[in-house]
Amino acid sequence: MVSLARKNLLKDLPRFLVAQAGIMFAVSLVTIQTGILKGFTRSTTLLIDSSAADIWVASENIVNFELTEPFPYAQVRQAQDIEGVALAEALTIGSGRWYSDGKLTTLRVFGFDPNGQLFRPGQVSNSAIAALNAPYSALIDRTNMRSFRIGDVGDTARIRQLPVTVVGLTSDTQSLVSSKFVFTSLINAGAYINSGFSSELTCQLGEGDITCVNAFERDADTASEVAAPAPLNADAPVTYVLVRAAPGENLQQLKQRLENTLPGTKAFTKDELIDTTQAYWQNRTGIGFILGLGAIVGVIVGMVVVAQILYTSVSENLREFGTLKAMGASDWDIYSVILEQSLWMAVLGYVPGLLLCWGMGTWTAATQGIVVLITPISAVGVFGITVVMCVGSAVFAIQKVTRVDPGIVFKA
Amino acid sequence: MVAIAAQNIQMSFMSGTTETRVLKGIDLAIPSGQIRLMMGPSGSGKTTLLSILAGILTPTAGTVQLLGQEITTLSRKKLTVFRRNHIGFIFQSFNLFPALTALENIELALQLKGYKGPGIKEQAFDLLKQVGLGDRANNLPADLSGGQKQRVAIARALAGEPELIMADEPTAALDSATGRDVIELMQYLAKNKGCTVLIITHDPRITNAADEITYLEDGVLAKQSSLVTGLH
Questions:
Q1: Which residue segment(s) compose the domain that B187 sits in?
Q2: Is B208 a domain residue?
Q3: Is the ipTM of this complex over 0.85?
Q4: Is residue B12, in this structure, part of any structural domain at all?
Q5: How many domains in chain B?
Q6: What are B122-142's pLDDT values in tens digits?
Q7: A406 close contact with B: CB closer than 8 A
Q8: B-chain residues near A327 (CB < 8 A)
Q9: Does A4 touch chain B (CB under 8 A)?
Q10: Is B64 part of a structural domain of the chain?
Q11: d(Cα A69, Cα A67) in Å, to the nearest integer?
């Protein structure tokens, strides 16, 4: 069958290629913006996603995964005794400063039990995790090696006044909106977070509530001798209790029991904590809006490019469309030529655009740690947007051809 | 049998508040199988009349019957179908699709008329051979001479074997010899296939190809003459 649409498109190859470049640009803009939004959103919850915990217990004042308040380590032990809890482990999160080669980098310390089962810091070997049992050892994400000025495993630096040895490298952990992540044992984390400070946690029980005050006092800036980190005591601050439910346990009921037993806490299933955190970053910050706006600009640019190309093509071929009308082509026959043109433009702009984004995404993830997330669903979604963009643009061209005077065919 | 009949065709155009009467009551009857030339000076209303007779324009007043079918009362959709099934067009500027080869131009016309399947290419090629361009099937219009383009246009007009051929200045863009060749070809094919042919022309060189000539002047028929010494 003769495809007038395809032939018309390819008639002027340089112009066609310029048009396709425009569509490719629009597709890339939409894909990258949505990919960054998805990648950024996903990055904020990578650590939750990779954990084996069914329930996360946090302070009732939690705002998002990293913005919450500590509670005493004793509550982890309490949680372990609650009916329906198969396993309870602590996770602590704190801030710090990384010194290497005289340069300073802010960091986020995650302390977990290296011998535990519920928290796993990304893609990392078991031996590297086991190595965290050593004092002042840590894992870092591969994408942060340059920021931390770490060349290889075994390199050392300082967190505040304390030494740190990198005992392993991990991946797929870093949030795009956070300071650089460092993973270590609970004991090491306690030392790093409180390094430079001495703290005293005072808790009082009154009318069923425990009220705790953690008082910090700054130590002297230089420590002449580094002692081994102190083991965790019952008052040590932790950020989460990670819970694995007993087989067959109803998670909502278990959450309720945990909140009732551990005053001042709020329990989340894994998905709930992911949703809460992602919603915070998407809605309560302007990031989702800005990236969404970028994607909309991409669609508008694409529509303008396609509309302009199709409109020009129709204008140039007006006599041909008039001829088709005179020869007895129905309106639909003519519209289908224009729509087919727009669909070809959509497909031929989408495929290289997506490949370009995939290549760029791979590069940015490897070199910058910025994930441009292109999932099969988002790829299909962007294709749908591209088709709508191109077909929508065809409407302008169709209006032009609808108004064509068939008498045009008799003009010389 | 009368193939093309028109009664009291009138056509006016409004330009601002000014009404211009282009056709002022045309009566016409063209028998089946006839080749009819319509001649007249520029602005006499020839092309407007052709557009009305072909169902492309609707007259301000009057009726047109093609092959016994009153077309002035048909809906736009039915007119489109009528044109597709019964009329072949030949244009002064050929109006070939520049992105399609000679063969594809004819294939497209056959497609429009509902022809499908692998035989369509063969049919298109047969038509090209009939106009002597079998060896130019894969050439784009840009690679053909004016005469060759008009031959392709004739082959396209004959696609689907329409009963009526309407041609607007088919030789105007051609030199004398080529124009004569084209008209002879049209005459030969029309007679062979039993088509009724209406040709609008200024070209006095082709008058002897016609069965009859109608003269139009200032929107009215000036005179009509029958020729007995045509080329056929």
A1: 34-44+77-226
A2: yes
A3: yes
A4: no
A5: 1
A6: 999 999 998 889 999 999 999
A7: yes
A8: 83-84, 89, 109, 112
A9: yes
A10: no
A11: 7
